[in-house]
């Protein structure tokens, strides 16, 4: 999404996870974003929301700014809607109510009065650029599913989710084959 108001570009862009941490060109893009825009918010989403199942996505929010000698980004707020969340494309879809806390926390009109919560944390520009490759792949919540093997879903639930993921993948591959055959 791109919004232009009073010659200022305000953007929200969906990017796959690797854009936040890969070296090379990815690192250059991140450094340019921090320098030349006010990159103020990252919404971390679960797998399969915008891309194929298994691909994690993020929405980055930034305001374009005129060229300057100092970086425009001061603080980056990261909202984790990924850890300990589980959505699927068919049976357990992400809905508007899952985004309500983010929308309330995001508060674009009062962005400089935001408060931290369990899912919403602020990181300074200096903290970000001190990270290896200016890595924006930041997480702080403990993934409860990794440490609690006692509370795994029932096997039939896991099996149904696997079948669902395979069916979605198969449909994607069928689309690719159809496109290749049209050439």
Segments where pLDDT lies below 50 for 5+ residues?
none
Rg calculated over all Cα atoms:
19 Å
CATH architecture descriptor of the largest domain = 3-Layer(aba) Sandwich
The portion of residues forming beta strands comes to 15-25%
User: What is the helix tally?
Assistant: 5
Can you identify the CATH class of the largest domain? Alpha Beta
Class computed from helices, strands and strand pairing? alpha+beta
| The CATH fourth-level homologous superfamily of the largest domain | Vaccinia Virus protein VP39
Report the helical percentage.
25-40%
User: How widely separated are the two ends?
Assistant: 32 Å
Strand order in space, largest sheet: 1-2-4-3-5-6
Shape label: globular
CATH topology of the largest domain: Rossmann fold
Averaged pLDDT: 82
Q: Helix and strand succession?
A: EEHEEEHEHHH
Number of strands: 6
Can you tell me the number of structural domains? 2
The main β sheet shows up as: 6 strands, mixed
